[in-house]
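dumping this here so i dont lose it
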């Protein structure tokens, strides 16, 4: 009798242990997320530094909802360590896919290797990383920032008149758009009389652009042109120029990148002279690429966003249709 009870008890314990094993395993956890048919995406955003970023966030949130993708969203407040923390938390939560727009270009290999080992694909959007290991992400969706800088420089070359001295408001130090927009612009104006006489980061913010421009106006004897890596910094510079008693767009030419509504309004009013477009509406393409990656379909390693550029006259026509 005792032997019978013991055998029965062992059988019950074994059954319980087996059930525990399957219920608590990583397999059961991840198959739960994948088998209900709903994709979960962890998105680590840079921050809310500019009008461009606000439009980008809205596009991602709206298109995730439209695609039936469950979006976990975090705002890193322009700090790399916050983005790394967010990515680690998405790995722990076993999301199906991670997408992010890297604050800066370098320092991602360790955390992306963790995602790779956890079998979670990663998509880069908007900004690239600087890594030799291209297996750390499936694709990179975003603009050609070098080309944007080139377009800005080419326009200036054609429209400089007597202007020579350029001050540059750079984006966040170490960020791909800051590095590339500088490079493209410098390449375009090389061999001309145009010269960058002062350059400093305004961190892609309006207040940063204003502060740096105030300092430039005090320390640089002759400023003919402002080249700002985004509209927000250009708009901040306009405030500083007006406060210094000068006329933006006339006494000092202004070229910016983005073409958000506020920038286009200033361009139409003649306070900015030229804007190179950088399209923030990446949400739809990102959701489509994510679905393909998770279905095991081939995706191109690089998807470049198509963009235009605007003069003041073109901004007047475009403005009523501008969505962001
Ligand atoms: O990475 C894109 C850039 O980031 C945009 O040009 C700028 O406005 C933003 O902050």
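and the seq i came up w/
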């Amino acid at each position: 009798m005792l032997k019978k009870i013991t055998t029965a008890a062992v059988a019950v314990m074994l059954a319980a242990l087996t059930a525990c094993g399957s219920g608590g395993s990583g397999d059961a956890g991840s198959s739960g997320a994948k088998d209900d048919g709903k994709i979960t995406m962890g998105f680590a955003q840079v921050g809310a530094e500019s009008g461009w970023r606000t439009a980008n966030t809205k596009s991602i949130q709206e298109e995730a909802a439209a695609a039936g993708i469950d979006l976990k969203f975090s705002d890193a407040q322009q700090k790399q360590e916050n983005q790394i923390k967010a990515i680690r938390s998405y790995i722990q939560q076993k999301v199906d896919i991670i997408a992010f727009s890297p604050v800066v270009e370098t320092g991602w290999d360790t955390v992306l290797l963790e995602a790779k080992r956890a079998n979670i694909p990663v998509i880069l959007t908007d900004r690239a990383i600087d890594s030799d290991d291209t297996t750390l992400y499936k694709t990179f969706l975003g603009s050609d920032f070098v080309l944007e800088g080139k377009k800005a420089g080419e326009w200036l070359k054609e429209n400089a008149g007597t202007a020579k001295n350029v001050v540059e408001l750079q984006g966040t130090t170490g960020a791909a758009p800051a590095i590339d927009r500088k490079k493209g612009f410098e390449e375009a104006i090389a061999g001309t009389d145009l010269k960058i006489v002062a350059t400093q980061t305004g961190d892609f913010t309006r207040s940063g652009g204003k502060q740096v421009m105030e300092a430039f106006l005090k320390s640089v004897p002759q400023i003919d042109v402002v080249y700002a890596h985004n509209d927000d910094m250009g708009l901040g510079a306009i405030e500083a120029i007006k406060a210094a008693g000068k006329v933006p767009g006339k006494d000092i030419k202004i070229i910016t990148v983005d073409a958000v509504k506020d920038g286009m309004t200033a361009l139409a009013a003649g306070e900015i002279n030229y804007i190179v477009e950088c399209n923030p509406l990446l949400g739809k393409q990102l959701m489509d690429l994510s679905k393909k990656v998770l279905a095991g379909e081939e995706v191109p390693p690089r998807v470049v966003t198509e963009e235009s550029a605007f003069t003041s006259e073109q901004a007047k026509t475009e403005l009523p249709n501008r969505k962001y």
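The pocket of alpha-L-arabinofuranose is lined by residues 49-50, 52-53, 126-127, 177, 204, 230, 257-258, 278 (CB under 6 Å).
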